[in-house]
Write a structure and sequence with these properties.
Layout (H helix, E strand, L loop, with lengths): L5 H13 L5 H16 L3 H25 L8 H18 L1 H5 L11 H4 L15 H16 L2 H9 L4 H19 L1
Helix pairs in contact: 1-2, 3-4, 4-7, 4-8, 4-9, 8-9
């Protein structure tokens, strides 16, 4: 559940990270505070983060498709799932790149999940933790796959071929990533 006090901060951070008019001296402390917030996330926090990162895109696209007159308006929960699946798959796929980010790693995996396997998220990248890393990865992938059925229903309801391709191509590419 998104509380009103979190919504402005989350939206502001997404704007701020790409804002070139704000100085680095102002930006960095704000982004570090937000990073600490998301680093300690539960699965619910992880879902909320994914909602703001990509679920809102799914909602917006569904509304645009509807306004165009080419598609029926999908339920918000269905449109949101489309984005959540893509975002969660990106987070899984980009683990090593994010964890090795210089000067400070980016950590988007849910602490509630990874802390069952290691004390620090970055420990999953070491060969001695390979078995734990695979076990954790299975849980993260399973979490992302909870959205697949809803995504397939969404796409099966699409009538306009270009809109179907626009939605289906990234979905199929992401299915490929998690099924490898």
């Amino acid at each position: 559940m998104v509380t009103p006090d979190k919504r402005p901060l989350t939206s502001y951070v997404y704007f701020l990270k790409d804002d070139t008019s704000t100085s680095t001296e102002v930006k960095v402390p704000i982004l570090k505070t937000f990073h600490r917030h998301i680093y300690d996330k539960t699965v619910d926090d992880y879902n909320e983060f994914c909602h703001y990162a990509a679920g809102l895109v799914g909602l917006g696209l569904s509304k645009l498709f509807h306004v165009s007159g080419k598609e029926d308006l999908a339920l918000d929960i269905i449109s949101n799932s489309l984005g959540l699946f893509l975002q969660k798959t990106n987070i899984i796929r980009d683990y090593l790149e994010d964890i090795n980010e210089i000067p400070k790693s980016r950590m988007f995996w849910s602490r509630q999940i990874w802390s069952k396997y290691v004390n620090k998220l970055e420990d999953l990248k070491y060969e001695e933790n390979l078995i734990k890393a695979v076990q954790c990865l299975k849980v993260m992938v399973t979490n992302s796959l909870t959205h697949v059925e809803v995504c397939l229903k969404y796409m099966s309801a699409l009538r306009d071929p270009p809109i179907f391709c626009f939605c289906a191509i990234p979905q199929v590419m992401h299915y490929y990533v998690v099924f490898l």
